[in-house]
Specification:
There is one protein chain. By secondary structure, the chain is mainly β. Helix content is about 0%, strand content about 50%.
Length: about 110
């Protein structure tokens, strides 16, 4: 059974930082590309960033470029998202995802002054 469990969310002020983490189990983590996606209230799910199975190649949505960094540690089955210069519009539930069908329970990120 694929299991993904996110952590690290919270409430921060604009300009603040958070580091999200996701622990994966139930599959060979190092064989799969992974993504972070998010869903803001009343909006569709959107991709934030993607990383290939080995961690050498990353892609970011335009809003995340220069502010967010996706990384992984295959030895620990961990996926990370470092988020800096957070903005109110980054407020959402953030999910670790393997493909379009496997997602964790999410972690809430709230950016507000």
């Amino acid at each position: 059974e694929v299991r993904l469990e996110e952590s690290g969310g919270g409430a921060v002020q604009p300009g603040g930082s958070l580091r999200l983490a996701c622990v994966a189990s139930g599959f060979t983590f190092s064989s799969y590309s992974m993504s972070w996606v998010r869903q803001a209230p009343g909006k569709r799910v959107e991709t934030v960033a993607h990383i290939n199975s080995g961690g050498e190649s990353t892609k970011y949505e335009e809003f995340a470029k220069g502010r967010f960094t996706i990384s992984r540690d295959n030895s620990r089955n961990m996926l990370y998202l470092e988020m800096n210069d957070l903005r109110p519009e980054d407020t959402a539930v953030y999910y670790c995802a393997r493909g379009p069908t496997n997602r964790g329970q999410g972690t809430q990120v709230t950016v507000s002054s």
